[in-house]
Every structure is written in structure tokens, then in C-alpha cells.
Amino acid sequence: MSLFKSIKEDSMLKRVVITGGVHGNELTGAFLVKKWQKTPLVTKNIKIEYLLGNPKAFKECRRYIDYDLNRSFSKKALSKDSYIYEFERAKVLKERLKSCDFLIDIHTTTANMGMTIVLSKDDPLSNLVAKKLSLEFDDVKILRWFSTSEGDFINSAVPHSITLEAGAICQGVLEPRIFFRCEEIVKRAVEILDSEINQDKFEIGKSVEVYDIVKIVDFPREENEPSAMIHPNILGKDYFQLKNGEPIFVTLEGETILYDGEPLYAVFINEAAYYEKKIAFCLCEKSKI
Amino acid sequence: MSLFKSIKEDSMLKRVVITGGVHGNELTGAFLVKKWQKTPLVTKNIKIEYLLGNPKAFKECRRYIDYDLNRSFSKKALSKDSYIYEFERAKVLKERLKSCDFLIDIHTTTANMGMTIVLSKDDPLSNLVAKKLSLEFDDVKILRWFSTSEGDFINSAVPHSITLEAGAICQGVLEPRIFFRCEEIVKRAVEILDSEINQDKFEIGKSVEVYDIVKIVDFPREENEPSAMIHPNILGKDYFQLKNGEPIFVTLEGETILYDGEPLYAVFINEAAYYEKKIAFCLCEKSKI
User: Fold this and answer.
1) Tell me, which fold does domain B2-197 have in CATH?
2) A-chain residues within 8 Å CB-CB of B226?
3) Which residues of B touch A235 (CB under 8 A)?
């Protein structure tokens, strides 16, 4: 188990940070963090800190005030004073995350992604935690999204991390099924970090499927605004394999638009926050790790 | 048919206004209005104007900028200059609605309300249009909501109106099923106004069920923030009859909270925009008109 040894040699995990509400209108993570701030999770070897990512956006129940905080961790955004609230908040969070060994960041999506662990870099320890969760929980899938042109994720501020992306759920609401399932998965992730990795009990197990985002598909647009909607045939079907010739959009006039491309797996289908990012859905390759 | 005659004597309908995007993140109405601005509906006797209610909030994909526009039509809000964007926009809309005989206002909700016609005052003509739609469309229900303490609806600016409230759909997204169903219902409403009421062909038909909001239920709260979520047993079950002793909330700690009251019908269950209004759901009495 050379992979495991190389992680252990790195150093013992001491400090874990859990963030929620990095997007202010994704209430599940924000309320989990608030719950744990009052009643912290019990751990043996690690210290956990709970952070509300974007308190100002949370107060206004908006994704962000000036710019997406989860795209505000680029060197450029962090390097100079800014009128953008999120660029300043990112500097504060970067400082708070200085001695963080492992970050767990909780998000939700209006896409029907179930319980997805998003990995934002190819790091052996993060991979292993994701893999273990995916093997233990039937509904956990692993998605790798290593970069966007918009700016760096909060994960770039720490050496190791997983992002939990739960859906489908609307912005601005709580739902018990998703709330308690996220709680369960994060608790288990903490247990793995606290008792299995630190205690040398980690077992790698068999291989799991992972999805790698390789392509972005935007809505057809007129004067910058969507002129079509996600086709009913694919709405809510995240992680299905999209094949050449299948319907992907229906225009506002009712005309169907077909997919023209190689077979790939669709995720983030109809995520509300991605309309402005010019993402109707993302396409992935599937492989095993 | 005295009711019908009294409407007809009122005056012929000449000018109908259709509004969408009074809440900027309810995309269905906004995009229907934009569609019809490009390709207007065909009518014989009436002139229709299509208005995007809150263009600034639509641009930012937010419900409102400073205050809920659909609570900004009170005398007080309309009577003096204001730093609140929506109070100023309401004055503009009030002027635009001056010679409007009938308003159709399109909204969406994260609650599972299906296709609901909301009536905001007890007006015979509005009642009749709602009734006819409810008789013709299986999924159309009639809800009467005559006042809120927050301020007056846009409907208060016109003599007759219906509001279409469609759900469940998240804020910030379009979905074909809801988009085309709203289009169908609004088109039929226009047809009724254009050809049946104006042409003296209106038939009252048999009685229909209506729901009257009589009570508001808020989330349990701690320091002003919800400390519980809608219970899974009632989530998505709008228009069901809630009975004494049934679960209504589950706290963030997993404890169930039961309903203590007379049997009433629940609507607007878990509407995102109502968290800040201190509304977890509304309770209705059901009757026939």
C-alpha cells in the first residue's frame, strides 16, 4: 500500500475545517455549520473548526454579493485590495485556513446530483477519502473538476480537501432528507480522517468509478439570454450517458435541439447558479480509480 | 345570470396587461413576457401589453433589490419619493397600469402548488375567469389571498386580475413542463377575456373549490433563524388537509414537531422567498363558489 504510506509520511492530520455557506443561498451547509458550532462533532485526534463561508451573502440569502466566493481564491484575487466583497472575504478565509490539514466544504445544487464528492485537484489523500465514502455510501459519486476559467475554488487554499455537492434542492430552502444525509456523510468523513487515516487503519479497498468534467455545454442564447431550456428527457438525469442524436434542449418556441457529439456523462444539469456562467450542463468521461 | 350581467355593464374589456418577473428570479413569467414581446398573442377585441415587472432584479436574478415589489403597491409606498428601488418601480408600473382593464401576473414558487390561480380581491370578473380556468384545467386550483401585512400586491393597481402561481420550481431556472403549461393557461385566460366575456359567450358553469388563506405558520426559530425544517411527511404535499397531531417540522437535531390545531389545508409549503417573511406554510379553509 505505497499510496497510503506516502500520505502517512506526509504528516499526521491535526486540524480539519468544515465550511458551509460559501454560497450564501445554499442553506444546508450553512445550517450544518451553525449546528456544529453550537454542538461540535466529537473527535479523538483532530481539532475541527466550523466556518460560515460567506456570512454577508448568507444574511441576504444570495449566492454572493459581488462575485462567486468559490472562484475568488486565485493568486490575482488574493494579491491586491479590492472593491469586491468576496475577494476580501477570500483573503480572510485564506488566513483562517493557513494551518488547515483537510477541508470539507458543503454545497448544494438545483441539479439532481445526489450526493457528489467533488475533487478539485489530484491529491492522494483527498482521493482516498472520496473513494472510501463512495464505497460505503450507495448514493455517493465522485466527480473531478480541476479548474475553471473563472478563478480558483476555496480548496486551492488547503493541501487536502473534499467538496460535498448535494442535490437536487432549490436555493434558499432546507430539506430534512438532504440535510441529514449530508450530516451523515460529513460525520463519516471526519471519522475516517480522525480514526482511520490518523490511526493507521485505512484500507484502500476495491476500485470506484470517477467522473471527470471534460466539456461545458451552454444554452443556445439570443442577446446573451437563454433561448432554450433543458429538454424534459434529460432534466434531472445527472450522471446518465448522453448519446449522439439525443434531445438536449427545447427552445422557448417548442423546437427540440439534439446532441451532436461523442457519448459522455452529463452533470450539473440546470444548475440555477450556472445560467450566468454559461453552463447548461457539464459533460464527463467515466473511469475507475 | 345576474353576476355576469353586472360585469358586462361595467364596461367592455379593452386593455389587458400580462406581467412576468415581478420577482426577478422567477424566470418562467419573465421569459414568457419576453417571448410574447417578440411574438405577441393574437387577439380580436383586446389589446395586450407585456411587462417585465422588475428588470433590475431580473438582471441580477434576485427576487428584488431592496424590497419585495409585489408588496410595494400600498398607498404609503406609492405616495412619496423613496430610496427603495421597488417603491419607485411600483410608481412606474402603477402609471403603466392606469388604463388596464385586466392584469394577468405570472409567478413561480418552490412549493409544490401545481398551477394555482391566486385571487387577491373579491371581484366578480376575476372570480369568473379563475373559475372557468379551474373547470377547464384539471391541475388549476383557486387560492384567495386578500391581504398581507407587508404591503399591497401589484393586483391592487388594477380593477380586475388573476395571478398564476406555478410550482414546484427552483428560483433562477426554467423548466419546459412548467413553462409551456403556464403559457397554455395564460393563452386560454386571454381567449376567455377576448372572445367569451367581450363576446357575451361566457358561461358560469358548475361550482368549483376555492381555498382561502386564513392562517400563517412560521418555522420554530432561534435567534430569528429557523431551528427546524418542514417535515418530510408534508413536504411537497400542498393542498392536503393537515390534521391535529400530524408532524409538521423536524428540528435540526431530528426531533419531530406536531401540528396542534383544527384541520386546515396547507399551501406554500417551503417557499424559499417566505423564510424571511416568517412563513413556513399557509393554512386554508376550503369552500365552493
Assistant:
1) Aminopeptidase (3.40.630)
2) 31, 174
3) 175-176
CA distance A187 to chain B (A): 14
A52, A58, A113, A170, best to mutate vs chain B, most B CBs in 10 Å: A170
Rg of chain B taking only CA atoms, in angstroms: 19
What's the predicted TM-score (pTM) here? 0.95
The residues on A that touch B, with CB distances below 8 Å, are 31, 34-35, 61-62, 110, 168, 170-177, 179-180, 225-226, 229-232, 235, 250, 252-254, 270, 272-273, 275-276
The CATH code belonging to domain B212-288 is 2.20.25.160
Per-residue pLDDT of chain A (289 residues; tens, 9 = 90+): 334 444 544 557 899 999 999 999 999 999 999 999 999 999 999 999 999 999 999 999 999 999 999 999 999 999 989 999 999 999 999 999 999 999 999 999 999 999 999 999 999 999 999 999 999 999 999 999 998 888 899 999 999 999 999 999 999 999 999 999 999 999 999 999 998 887 766 666 688 999 999 999 999 999 999 999 999 999 999 999 999 999 999 999 999 999 999 999 999 999 999 999 999 999 999 999 8
Closest chain B C-alpha to A158 CA, distance in angstroms:
29
CATH number assigned to the domain with residue range A213-288, chosen from the 4 options 2.20.25.160, 2.40.50.140, 3.40.50.300, 3.20.20.70: 2.20.25.160
Cell of B59: 438582471
Strand order in the sheet with B160-167: B47-52, B15-20, B102-108, B160-167, B114-119, B140-144, B209-217, B281-288, B264-267, B241-242
A225 forms beta bridges with: A222
pLDDT at A201: 66
State how beta strands B114-119 and B140-144 pair. Answer: parallel
Distance from CA of B203 to the nearest CA of A (A): 32
Contact: B110, A173; criterion CB under 8 Å: yes
H/E segment holding residue A287: strand A281-288
Give the three-state DSSP class for A45.
coil
ipTM comes to 0.94
The pLDDT assigned to A3 comes to 47
Using the beta-carbon criterion (under 8 Å), do B176 and A231 form an inter-chain contact?
Answer: yes
Q: Which residues contact A96 (CB under 8 A, 6 or more apart)?
A: A17, A49, A51
In chain A, domain spans: 2-197, 213-288
